[in-house]
Write a structure and sequence with these properties.
Layout lengths: L3 H9 L16 E4 L4 H17 L4 E6 L8 E7 L8 H12 L3 H14 L9 E6 L5 H14 L3 E7 L2 H13 L11 H16 L8 E4 L4 H13 L5 E4 L14 H8 L15 E5 L6 E6 L5 E4 L1 H19 L7 E5 L5 H8 L4 E3 L4 H8 L4 E5 L5 E5 L1 H9 L5 H16 L7 H15 L3 H5 L7 E6 L8 E3 L4 E4 L3 H10 L5 E6 L6 E6 L3 H15 L1
Parallel strand pairs: 2-4, 4-5, 6-7, 6-8, 11-12, 11-13
Antiparallel strand pairs: 1-3, 2-3, 8-9, 9-10, 13-14, 15-19, 16-17, 18-19
Helix pairs in contact: 2-3, 2-5, 3-4, 7-8, 7-14, 7-15, 10-14, 17-18
This protein binds 2-acetamido-2-deoxy-1-O-phosphono-alpha-D-galactopyranose and zinc ion.
């Protein structure tokens, strides 16, 4: 049974602030770091219970608020294969986090354990990590109290990126099996990626040095180590690496800044020269946005949609070259935020599915393809190879040297790509491989299709929960009547598209609009926003 006395005395040290409702949303719990202490303690307990429920498999806990401002923090759980927590448990997490007192919490725990028939005698293992936020250490110690309250085994993975933590969870749980994912350490991760990368670019001319904007976050630390492992294979130049400067994290830099403002971070202005390319990570290094300066010193952004198009075409080419194209089919998963230009371009070539916002939706849809390429426009994404495809790759006998080369490339890609979750650095290496194989500059990559001008605005409303959507969030079903008005507005704009949905991570409603030119896209977005104030 539960060690009620121990849980009680530890829980009393982590009281829930009154008048605050916590919600496990698309990115876990996320709010101001200063009010998350009780949530962290309870998440530590929940992680241990999830581990027991899954027969002692290791569960991951990541403390980060990604691209959000420095005072924010957050926490999310990672399931044994390195994927996001099963949806049903998001509700349990929310219930436990909101029990107002220690007594209420213990009662909720007891009900939870009985309802889910969790066998408390099973072992429990939890691995946890945090990003560079100043609120991190105290929040980690609250999680450790939760883990100790359950007498579970905790492993501190220290300060590292979100994708490394996901990798670790999968590596730990597959250790010694035929599906072994890699050595269960950050070093093991770096080695796995860089060994595959070096094989993939062997014999190719070294690409020009690559600027990486690390958003002054944990990506800086991982990028530095990655650079050492890569040596001359590609020279990385990490910038915005001030992880200890107060207020610097995600401030006018990073992938979210670039995607949202469609501008180069001012700190890179003098560094990115004509013809050069660079990229930005977000605060926990799971997102990636590329860009380049053209010969006239114009900035061009290459977002998640452009990455998806580049990578999917490359994998299709390789399956053809290997003679596997009728056995291994590539498919794409996007959300409503994908640029209409990309959706048109991709659906003329490959199957494309649109799903609601949130990595778990993209991930699960991508699992249905032989090779599923999923990216959010904001640069979060990866490529999944189905178990059947991996099987085919390992048993296939190529009939020519050219087929054999292509087959090896695909196999190396399965090692280079972090298949647990979107991974800014792994995706960056993937992009570099494709550019190197195709001898593409940023400009040539960009030329596949033209992005439609678009505008994303946030609207603060009294209650965002009254906004409900259907059709992968592309249409509003509530409040009634608004969708008809949006449709009517959209009809007046050539190439117009717009949709409204409540954010899952912020207390706002988002409005997205696209049209044939900048002014029209802005105008449409603001007129639609005017409908929902
Ligand atoms: P919300 O706040 O639900 O729009 C944002 C991003 C998502 C996803 C999540 C998780 C946009 C428009 N939305 O979700 O794509 O990345 O955060 O971090 O970029
Ligand atoms: Zn992130």
């Amino acid at each position: 049974s539960l060690a009620v006395d121990r849980i009680r005395s530890l829980s009393d040290q982590h009281p829930k602030p009154s008048n605050i409702h916590f919600q496990y949303g698309t990115a876990g719990f996320r709010t101001l770091g200063s009010i998350l202490d009780s949530v962290m303690f309870r998440v530590g307990i929940l992680a241990a219970l999830r581990s027991k429920k899954l027969d002692g498999k290791t569960i991951g806990v990541m403390v980060t608020a990604s691209h959000n401002p420095e005072p924010d923090n957050g926490v999310k759980l990672v399931d044994p294969r390195g994927e996001m927590l099963e949806s049903a448990w998001e509700v349990h997490a929310t219930v436990l986090a909101n029990a107002p007192t220690t007594d209420a919490f213990i009662e909720a725990l007891d009900t939870f354990v009985r309802t889910l028939k969790i066998d408390l005698s099973k072992p429990a293992k939890v691995v946890y990590a945090r990003d560079t936020r100043p609120s991190g250490p105290a929040l980690i110690s609250a999680i450790e109290d939760g883990i100790n309250a359950m007498d579970a085994e905790g492993r501190d993975a220290g300060v590292t990126s979100t994708p490394v933590l996901h990798y670790l969870v999968r590596a730990i749980n597959t250790k010694g099996t035929k599906d072994e994912y890699g050595e269960d350490s950050e070093e093991g991760y770096l080695r796995k990626l860089t060994v595959a990368f070096k094989k993939l670019v062997a014999g190719k001319p070294a690409p020009p040095p690559l600027l990486i904007d690390c958003a002054n976050g944990v990506g800086a630390q991982v990028a530095h180590k990655l650079a050492e492992h890569l040596g001359d294979a590609v020279r990385l130049i990490p910038v915005n690496t001030a992880t200890t400067t107060p207020g610097a994290l995600n401030n006018s830099c990073g992938a979210d800044f670039v995607k949202t403002s469609q501008k180069l971070p001012p700190s890179l202005n003098s560094q990115l020269t004509a013809g050069q390319r660079g990229c930005s990570l977000d605060g926990d290094a799971d997102r990636l946005i590329y860009y380049y300066m053209d010969s006239r010193n114009q900035f061009h952004m290459l977002d998640g949609d452009k990455i998806a198009a580049l990578v999917a075409a490359f994998i299709v080419d390789l399956t053809k070259a290997a003679g596997l194209d009728d056995q291994i089919k590539v498919g794409i998963v996007q959300t409503a935020y994908a640029n209409g230009g990309s959706t048109k371009y991709l659906s003329e070539r490959l199957p494309v599915k649109c799903v609601p916002t949130g990595v778990k939706h993209l991930h699960h849809a991508a699992e249905k393809y032989d090779v599923g390429v999923y990216f959010e426009a904001n640069g979060h994404g990866t490529v999944l190879f189905s178990p059947e495809s991996l099987e085919k790759l390992s048993s296939y006998e190529p009939s020519t040297p050219a087929q054999s080369t292509a087959l090896n490339h695909i196999i190396n890609l399965t090692q280079l790509i972090n298949q647990t979750v979107g991974d800014g650095l792994s995706d960056m290496l993937l992009v570099e491989v494709v550019l190197s194989h195709k001898s593409y500059s940023g400009e040539e990559w960009d030329s596949s299709y033209v992005d439609l001008p678009n505008r994303l605005v946030k609207v603060v409303v009294a209650d965002r929960n009254i906004f409900r959507t259907e059709d992968a969030e592309r249409r509003l079903i509530s409040p009634p009547g608004i969708q008809a008005k949006i449709d009517e507005l959209v009809r007046r704009y050539e190439g117009g598209r717009s949709f409204v949905r409540p954010s899952g991570t912020e207390d706002v409603v988002r409005v997205y609009a696209e049209a044939m030119n900048r002014t029209q896209a802005d105008e449409l977005a603001f007129r639609v926003a005017g409908l929902i104030y």
